[in-house]
């Protein structure tokens, strides 16, 4: 939860749950940035700092994050004799103190295994979620940098909140509501280069904020952008016959199909901006986008 966020309760969630959400349970310590902030959009992080006391968040949007926090108790009770749970590590690079709280470290004969627990959606495990790779590789950098212990492998343990037994019969669908995913381990140099690039991006954004300059824009990936597509549909039909990424391609295909088909534009969207960004009302990039739409 943000430091000074104004918590709302539009759907009358029980007070016991509200009490938990209102009580602080996260502290990045003396760090300039936590690992999750480091991999986040610099613009979102900077605007969150600036408008922290004005941000509102409804309790309903925080429930699954609460479940994620509860997973730490599961890890604590289920850990092995020599496992390390919820250890926060700090390290400096380019004058920035970076910290990360690692869910689980498991010693092995060759070094350390790192695992992170997620309460997430089926979609997230069926599609490449690059942020998990970023996060765990920074954890690996922290462990090797601070502890001088080699990290041998990384993994995500995902609890799937919307898993369906019926859907599990389909190809590619997770077979159980808990899935373990291996994460690619980078070289130490790759990790350090990535962290330096992220520090540079956040530094640039902080400077713009302090000097009243223009903040660097979020990338399409950071906005979870879905581009516009053009669908060719049979007249009166509901399903698309074919999909195209430009109107020109769609018109060319339509010419071959004849009069029984037409084109429907399906507008793009920026899912994170629309539904998940707490600072979108202060974001010029998003407000300009809304006007264009």
Topology as a string of helices (H) and strands (E) = EHEHHEHEEEHHEEHEEEHEEHH
End-to-end CA span: 31 Å
Shape: globular
Uncertain residue ranges: none
Helix content range of the residues, please? Answer: 25-40%
CATH architecture of the largest domain: Alpha-Beta Complex
Mean pLDDT: 93
* Fold-level CATH name of the largest domain: Lambda Exonuclease, Chain A
Number of strands: 13
Characterise the protein shown here.
The chain folds into 2 domains: 205 residues, Lambda Exonuclease, Chain A; 68 residues, no CATH class. The chain contains 10 helices and 13 strands. The two termini are 31 Å apart. α3 crosses α7 and α6 packs across α7. With 293 residues, the chain is α/β, with parallel strands linked by helices.
Write the layout of secondary structure elements.
Blueprint: E1 6-8, H1 15-22, E2 33-34, H2 35-38, H3 42-50, E3 56-58, H4 63-78, E4 84-93, E5 96-108, E6 111-120, H5 122-126, H6 130-147, E7 151-160, E8 178-183, H7 188-210, E9 225-226, E10 229-234, E11 240-244, H8 247-257, E12 261-266, E13 269-270, H9 271-276, H10 284-292
Parallel strand pairs: 1-3, 2-5, 6-7
Antiparallel strand pairs: 4-5, 5-6, 7-8, 9-13, 10-11, 10-12
Helix pairs in contact: 3-7, 6-7
What's the short version?
The protein is built from 10 helices and 13 strands. It is of the alpha/beta class and 293 residues long. The chain folds into 2 domains: 6-210, Alpha-Beta Complex (Lambda Exonuclease, Chain A), CATH 3.90.320.10; 225-292, no CATH class.
Throw out a few tags for this protein:
alpha/beta, 293 residues, globular, Lambda Exonuclease, Chain A, single chain, 10 helices, six-stranded mixed β-sheet
